[in-house]
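Whiteboard transcription, Tuesday session. T.W. wrote the structure tokens on the left side:
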């Protein structure tokens, strides 16, 4: 008996289908060739999490004593269907198991969009899910970034995609700005001991910042002239913390409300111009330079695909 939604080979139908319908999983193989690699990976991870949650709920019900008063084949079927829907509704939540599964899948696929999308069986999922939930298997976002555009983009793309999914800011926009601010990893903001501050976006430690601080000499444009000044910048524990703090700044600060809204347009120049108008940087050429960096990320990702 099949209760899945009609197959349309789209990501939407896959995400809405019952997790126990193996055809909805197989449809992802087709979608791997028609949708973005990151999008398909996220949808596959949600399906795997649904399967895992289904087995977990089933085990919990089997361990519960039954009264015998309402026991029947129809009641069991109804309960099973409700459990199936519950497992789907519980999957894909922010911070849930699907995010860890997606990260593991991305590493196994090597980021290649043309790679065959292998869908594990339920049994392999049971072995796979608990393993990805352990801290030792999570990506290390404290590892030094390679110097140079290509290595920089490849190293941080996964982190940018995760934060993009939560914030709505395109990953390419964030990668381009991080690359521009750090010279593609060549001029990161560093602490006094030489260690990195993980600050990829040049966010200053203004009033209200209670975290760690890195104080450096930087260039500011004052009355149109470049001058060397000493300034305090925010410091983090990882590059992912830097991406998240940047996304929080853009999405929660009224100052960058315009930038957040134009981010959805997909226009690099519109986004860069909105940031410059909001005073993100003092460089009068900031919008032009930033949009150029964002477009270079797009070219790099196409070459690496």
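and on the right, the sequence the group agreed on:
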């Amino acid at each position: 008996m099949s209760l899945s939604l009609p197959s349309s080979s789209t990501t939407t139908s896959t995400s809405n289908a019952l997790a126990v319908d193996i055809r909805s999983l197989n449809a992802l193989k087709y979608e791997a060739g028609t949708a973005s690699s990151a999008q398909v990976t996220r949808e596959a991870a949600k399906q795997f999490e649904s399967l895992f949650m289904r087995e977990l709920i089933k085990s919990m019900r089997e361990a519960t004593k039954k009264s015998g008063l309402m026991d029947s084949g129809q009641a069991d079927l109804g309960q099973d269907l409700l459990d199936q829907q519950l497992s789907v509704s519980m999957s894909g939540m922010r911070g849930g198991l699907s995010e860890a599964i997606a990260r593991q899948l991305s590493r196994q696929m090597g980021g290649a969009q043309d790679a065959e999308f292998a869908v594990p069986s339920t049994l392999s999922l049971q072995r796979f899910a608990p393993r990805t939930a352990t801290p030792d298997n999570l990506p290390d976002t404290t590892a030094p970034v390679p110097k140079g555009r290509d290595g920089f983009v490849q190293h941080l793309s996964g982190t940018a995609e995760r934060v993009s999914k939560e914030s709505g800011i395109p990953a390419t926009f964030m990668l381009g700005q991080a690359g521009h601010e750090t010279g593609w990893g060549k001029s990161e903001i560093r602490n006094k001991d030489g260690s990195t501050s993980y600050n990829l976006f040049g966010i200053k430690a203004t009033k209200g910042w209670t975290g760690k601080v890195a104080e450096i000499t930087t260039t500011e444009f004052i009355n149109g002239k470049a001058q060397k000044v000493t300034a305090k910048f925010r410091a983090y524990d990882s590059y992912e913390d830097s991406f998240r703090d940047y996304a929080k700044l853009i999405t929660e600060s009224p100052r960058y409300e315009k930038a957040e809204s134009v981010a959805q347009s997909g226009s690099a120049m519109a986004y860069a111009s909105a940031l410059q108008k909001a005073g993100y940087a003092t460089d009068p050429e900031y919008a032009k330079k930033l949009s150029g960096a964002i477009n270079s990320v797009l070219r790099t990702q196409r070459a690496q695909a």
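Someone added at the bottom: The first strand starts at residue 212 and ends at 222.
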